[in-house]
Amino acid sequence: MITQLAAAYNNRGVALRSSGDIDRAMEDYDRALRLSPDYYVALNNRGVALMSKGELDRAISDFDRAVQLRTDYLGAYYNRGNALGRKGLFDRAIADYDLVIKADPKNPTFLFERGTMKANAGDQSGADADFERAESLRSNGARTTRPR
Q1: Is the distance from CB of 107 to CB of 101 less than 8 angstroms?
Q2: Rounded-to-integer distance, Cα 111 and Cα 128, Å
Q3: How many whole angstroms separate alpha carbon 40 and alpha carbon 62?
Q4: Residues of the chain whose pLDDT is less than 50?
Q5: Is 32 within 8 Å of 39 (Cβ atoms)?
Q6: How far apart are CA 134 and CA 111, in angstroms?
Q7: pTM for the whole thing?
Q8: 126 with 118: CB under 8 angstroms?
Q9: CA-to-CA distance for 119 and 5, rounded, in angstroms?
């Protein structure tokens, strides 16, 4: 059960992270998780903060725990895909993006990120298909800068 205090710490952590104060945000996420160890949102948010600090293994661990606690929490899959991609684990990142795209197939950001991972993995035709689909879904139809 999530306490109001745990939620308050998590929310303040989000605000602190948004303002660039990652260390204080981490302290608040840790406080929230001491109060509610199964608070999957705080785990995800702490993972994002860890990722911004370059602590990818710890971030992935938090995302893993968040999806264990809530298998339909797409934010944790998306963020884990980002962290896995930064580690060069492109196939695993693509698998996470596949899950979020299945749930939200018209999100151009998800398609673009998966396309980037496919390009990094050497699947340029798959990447191009994702990029084209992402571009077609953008409201202004703007082309994106594609990684090669």
Answers
A1: yes
A2: 10
A3: 9
A4: none
A5: yes
A6: 6
A7: 0.90
A8: yes
A9: 43
Quote the tokens at residue 95: 């698998």
Which DSSP string do the residues of 44-101 spell out, in sequence order? HHHHHHHHHTT-HHHHHHHHHHHHHH-TT-HHHHHHHHHHHHHTT-HHHHHHHHHHHH
* 8 Å CB contact between 119 and 127: yes
Overall residue count recorded for the chain in this entry: 148
Return the structure tokens found at 72.
């339909």
Tokens of 68: 């264990």
Q: Which of 31, 26, 6 is nearest to 14 (CA)?
A: 26
Residue written as token pair 């571009």: 135
